[in-house]
Amino acid sequence: MSVLQAVFLGIVQGLTEFLPVSSSGHLAIFQNILHIETDSSVLFDVMLHVGTLLVVLVVYWKDILKLIVEFFRMIGDLFANLSMLFSSGRKQPHYRKIVRTNYRKFVVLIIVSTIPTGIMGYLGSKLIKDASGTLIVPGICLLITGVLLLLSDRRADCWKIPKDVSYGEGVLIGIAQGFATLPGLSRSGSTIAAATFCGLDRKFAVKYSFILSIPAIIGAAVLELSDISSEAVTGRLIGTYAAGMIAAAVVGYLAIRFMLRIVQNRKLKYFSYYCFAIGVLSIIGQFVFM
């Protein structure tokens, strides 16, 4: 893989990770049609996702910091309650309420949503890898993404913020993210659509989707790192892949800012038309290029 190819795929990753058109689907399509060899493809995929992960951390750093602080405060309150339980004797202890703020509820929702995503991603890892080697699977999944975006755009504006979202709805959003590990099924599109179907405020739905991607990206990276062959990694490859990672981060930052406005203005339908077009072309390409 050349530096230009790495930068090109990085740009594709940065755009499609946050715009609801599926990064994995586009990478699979470009790699199959252009026959781009990524040499140590697992490492390259990990580095591209690290680049987009950095974007989420930069854009939502205030929210992420509050979530981390509240998580540890919840742990502290839990131990305090346990201490009161075992030392109260006959007195009725005044337990601290663990989930008492929006950010604490958001922490629990992220955990609840991550569990089904992790299970589905782990059990379906071989299927996902095989699906990326074809054009027809990304094509069909892009068509499904287009339908989800159209339905989401037509959903009436809702008002739910963390305190109003049930844990069952959190599980449903996590399942949507789990299915989105298939190439062509947009992660951001699927989770934002699922969130709006559950009645979440559109701005919060976008925030939920992108912050929810953090544990998913980290988990996927940890699993993939075990498959990296140290003999295949050279200094030249690291430099090439780093160029792709930087490109993904820069373009991803612009894309996530753009996406915030698109969802609030109910313009997802334009991305659905794009997904329909690319999906059909991908299916046709299966019989032309493969």
TrEMBL record:
Give the GO biological process terms: cell wall organization; peptidoglycan biosynthetic process; regulation of cell shape; response to antibiotic
Keywords assigned by UniProt, alphabetized: Antibiotic resistance, Cell membrane, Cell shape, Cell wall biogenesis/degradation, Hydrolase, Membrane, Peptidoglycan synthesis, Transmembrane, Transmembrane helix
Catalysed reaction(s) here are: di-trans,octa-cis-undecaprenyl diphosphate + H2O = di-trans,octa-cis-undecaprenyl phosphate + phosphate + H(+)
Q: How does it sit in the membrane?
A: Multi-pass membrane protein
Stretches that traverse the bilayer: 6-30, 42-61, 106-125, 131-151, 208-226, 238-259, 271-289
For this protein, the record's InterPro entries field holds: UppP (IPR003824)
> What top-level class of enzyme does the UniProt entry assign?
hydrolase
GO cellular component terms, semicolon-separated: plasma membrane
Q: What is its EC number?
A: 3.6.1.27
Q: Where in the cell is it found?
A: Cell membrane
Major place of residence: membrane
Q: Which superkingdom does the taxonomy of this entry point to? A: Bacteria
GO MF entry, a single one: undecaprenyl-diphosphatase activity
Biological role: Catalyzes the dephosphorylation of undecaprenyl diphosphate (UPP). Confers resistance to bacitracin.
Q: HAMAP family this protein is in?
A: Undec_diphosphatase
Q: Which family does it belong to?
A: Belongs to the UppP family.
Q: What else is known?
A: Bacitracin is thought to be involved in the inhibition of peptidoglycan synthesis by sequestering undecaprenyl diphosphate, thereby reducing the pool of lipid carrier available.
Q: What is the protein's name according to its record?
A: Undecaprenyl-diphosphatase
Q: Top-down, what is the taxonomic lineage of the species of origin?
A: Bacteria, Bacillati, Bacillota, Clostridia, Lachnospirales
